[in-house]
Amino acid sequence: MDDTGDEEQRRIAEHIEWQKQGAWVVVWGAYTRCFWAYACWPVVPESGVVISARDPHNLYAEMRYVEREHDFLRWRYGRA
């Protein structure tokens, strides 16, 4: 990751959350220096799903993987 400041990283987290339309809560961890995403849809396991990544592109890719793994698209849009 580059030397982008915390405020810019927070904006990136907000943008990812906006793209996901409320299906995830996404934050920048200033202490951990990672992005964190928390799934907030009913088709995840009871224990929940939390993803972290230092790079926003990796975070987004992992979020998509988890969505496919837990049939998110079927729940959200009624299709596979």
What does this structure look like?
- The chain is α+β, with helices and mostly antiparallel strands and 80 residues long.
- It has one domain.
- It is built from three helices and three strands; from the N terminus they run αβββαα.
- It has a three-stranded antiparallel beta sheet.
- Strand 1 and strand 2 form a beta hairpin.
- It is elongated.
- The mean pLDDT is 87.
Instruction: Tally the beta strands.
Output: 3
User: Can you tell me the residue ranges where pLDDT is under 50 for at least 5 consecutive residues?
Assistant: none
| Main beta-sheet strand count, sense and barrel state | 3 strands, antiparallel
- Helix content bin: 40-55%
Calculate the mean pLDDT score and round it.
87
**Can you list the strand order of the major beta sheet?**
1-2-3
Portion in strands: 15-25%
What is the total number of structural domains?
1
Structural class: alpha+beta
Q: Given the structure, what is the number of helices?
A: 3
